[in-house]
């Protein structure tokens, strides 16, 4: 009786293993899609030239005063949105949203002044390119 049970268990096990080894082919579509996504992520260009935390501390006092003067022209709600975007973990997308908001709310002269000041620690050309693409 034991031998019969052993054969009943072993024969299907061997047949299933042979099927997996010789005939079964996994679908390759899913793995190809994952690779393509990883490649697009690795080619995104960083928008910060230096560390995000060090950027504001490296500004001159004149530039800091100019930034404060321009930011005071924004509403409290807009300033809150900018702080929220700045603290977000997705740096590149948040930075794009900040500049979209600034472009929308400020005069052209003030916006250009902010671009000029922040060009020392940000890639302004890349930011403008991404704003146009969105």
Low-pLDDT residue intervals, each spanning 5 or more residues: none
Main sheet makeup? none
Average residue pLDDT: 82
Number of domains: 1
Radius of gyration, taken over Cα atoms and rounded to an integer in Å: 28 Å
Distance between the termini: 73 Å
What is the chain-wise order of helices and strands?
A: HHHHHHHH
- How many strand segments? 0
* H/I helix tally: 8
SS class: mainly alpha
Question: What proportion of the residues form beta strands (DSSP E)?
Answer: under 5%
Please give the share of residues in helix: over 70%
Overall shape: rod-shaped
Transmembrane segments: 6-24
Keywords: Membrane, Transmembrane, Transmembrane helix
How is this fold's topology laid out?
Layout: H1 2-22, H2 29-42, H3 52-55, H4 61-71, H5 76-87, H6 91-105, H7 108-118, H8 124-133
Transmembrane segments: 6-24
Keywords: Membrane, Transmembrane, Transmembrane helix
């Amino acid at each position: 009786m034991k031998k019969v049970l052993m054969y009943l268990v072993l024969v299907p096990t061997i047949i299933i293993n042979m099927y997996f080894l010789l005939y079964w082919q996994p679908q390759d579509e899913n793995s190809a899609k994952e690779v393509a996504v990883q490649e697009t992520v690795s080619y995104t260009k960083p928008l910060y030239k230096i560390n995000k935390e060090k950027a504001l501390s490296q500004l001159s006092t004149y530039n800091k005063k100019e930034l404060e003067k321009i930011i005071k022209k924004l509403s409290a709600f807009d300033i809150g949105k900018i702080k929220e975007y700045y603290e977000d973990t997705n740096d590149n997308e948040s930075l794009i949203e900040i500049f979209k908001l600034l472009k929308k709310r400020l005069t052209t002269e003030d916006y250009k002044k902010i671009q000029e000041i922040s060009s020392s620690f940000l890639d302004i050309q890349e930011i403008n390119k991404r704003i146009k693409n969105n």
